[in-house]
Amino acid sequence: MNVTIDHLQIHYSVKGEGPDVVLLHGWGAELGTFQSIQESLSRYFRVYAIDLPGFGKSEEPPVPWGVEEYTQFVRKFFEALGIDTPILMGHSNGGRISIQYASQYPVRKMILVNSAGIKPKRKPMYYVKVYTYKLVKHVLRIPGLHLYRERILTYMKGRVGSDDYKNVSGVMQQTLVRVVNTDLRHLLPGIRCSTLLIWGQHDTATPLADGKLMESLLPDAGLVTLQAGHFSYLERPQEFNIIVNKFLENERKRQ
Prior knowledge:
Elements: E1 2-5, E2 8-15, E3 20-24, H1 35-41, E4 46-50, H2 67-81, E5 87-91, H3 93-102, E6 109-113, H4 124-139, H5 149-160, H6 163-166, H7 170-180, E7 194-200, H8 208-217, E8 221-226, H9 232-235, H10 237-247, H11 249-253
Parallel strand pairs: 3-4, 3-5, 5-6, 6-7, 7-8
Antiparallel strand pairs: 1-2, 2-4
Helix pairs in contact: 2-3, 4-5
């Protein structure tokens, strides 16, 4: 299914009937990764999975976005489809957006899965790469060198950028830089909805320490760990669905 939000064609899927549950995927993923979760929850809920702008079958934003722009997009999506006080589930970058949303708007419950939102501690080599790139970018403004600017910068991006960075367009590369450098820990104490944190013990992208920190800062939260990595919901689907259904048991009884 498709809907137009701020002139962008947005692809989404909806299944089931009942209280609204919205699934927000991580960076580089798309709504299809939530298929088993959507099927499981659709027995008791109306479950939406969205291709966020720039991913899956949804159009890219016209300019680089940050977490706030994605949050306002989600708000407008909810308004367009009549979604009110949803249950939010966000994986990785989708968790980052969920945190921002829950700090601004009513949410019934929230499930954060290997969530981003804590700005990572950088090793010295990271800053060497970043500032080398910025220096080269500045030098290439010199007359005569600008003819080689795009070729050299493309080469540099390939050398210093992560796979997430290299495998997307220029707009989405700048979007990635904006979102990963946003630290949301200051928002966590103000979030009042009950929150379930599900984490893979072996996650190296958003380490378990981030989940423990979020649990300590959120007023009403519990952390469950699985023998998995960053994609715990795909690596341990049966355990994951049992945990989620138990957390939402009282919500489905309200029907």
